[in-house]
Amino acid sequence: MPKRVLSFGGGVQTTAMAILMAQGKIQADEVIFADTGAEKPETYWYMDNYTKPLFKELGIFFTTVRQNPQLYEYCFKHSLIPSTHWRWCTDKAKQRPIKKYLTKADIIMIGFSVDESNRAKNQERVYPLLELGLSYADCENTILDYGWPMPLRSSCYFCPFQPWLEWNWLKREHPELIEKAISLEAHYYLRNSKARDTMGIFGGKPLWKWTTGIQSEWEFPGEYSCYSGDCGH
Known about the structure:
This protein starts with a strand and ends in a 21-residue tail after the last helix. Helix 1 (12-22) packs across helix 6 (136-145). The chain has helices at 12-22, 41-58, 71-78, 88-101, 128-132, 136-145, 164-173, 175-191, 207-212; strands at residues 4-7, 30-34, 61-65, 107-109, 125-126. It is built from 9 helices and 5 strands. With 233 residues, the chain is an alpha/beta fold.
């Protein structure tokens, strides 16, 4: 018998889906979370204190899958950094572990809202938020109306797709994670020295430049840049 399995990311949309399950608006038999080992600490805390207890209360089994080694260690071992051009890290650390666990008969539920309906191209998946006509803002309201705090946007702390405001937040709240990200980038340059001034994990550009204030060529608004001190340092 095929299962309806929610691919859970821990961010706003799949958190809203958990609440919609509690309200009987979405049905699922299981929830699966691909743990990269690199989510922000707040994401793990939120899951442990809000969504996991809710799934347990609903009697929905929560499964965690992982690649071995996990993403940061894999990148360091092979002198790699995540890319903005080819999302190999998503495939390696999320899609493959999930695919390995599930059967071909299982129905995978994805949390794309109507704002990103263009991403819903895989006809073998189902998209409950699209079926319900819910936007990202609707998901936020679902969470707030339920009385829960808003979760962070789910992503690895060294994700190259993070906007600079999130890097600023990370540098202020978790300087140790910024240091780990810089160390990963520096390790990559040991084997790719020519890339040091042009490539990195800050939107595809060098993170080390941003953290040292060498960023004028990127046209950031100075009042919000980390160099100005507005990130808290």
